[in-house]
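Course assignment 3, question 2. Fill in each field.
Student: A.L.
Task: Predict the tertiary structure for the chain below.
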Amino acid sequence: MKRNAKLVAALVLGLGLSCASAWAADTESFLGTVKNVSGSSITVERGTLSGIFTFDSKTHVGVSGATAKTKEAQAAGKPGLTVPDVVHVGDQVTVRYTEKGNAMIANDILVRVSLAKK
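Answer field:
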């Protein structure tokens, strides 16, 4: 009985690790400086490398003070903040993305250093 329990535990652990590594392989990160922000994409540069990432309403953006600004926008009758509202040219960001075809789709944008005037 103990042997079967150990075997089942080993199988579950193995499956969990393989699923986690498959998920991690699909998601990549890019750290750099924002060079351009539009309504549907962000261009980030790191040295000579450049990445153009598309985003949509499901893209999570992490930036200091965003929760308070989102509540203010919602109180004013707006749906909330958009990426161009909180990400600016010159900001240092980390973009977590997945590749679909030739497009890089941003899942998360984390503003590490913001140059926006407070």
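Instructor remarks: The beta strands are 27-37, 41-46, 49-54, 60-62, 92-100, 103-113. The chain has one domain: 29-113.
Grade: pending
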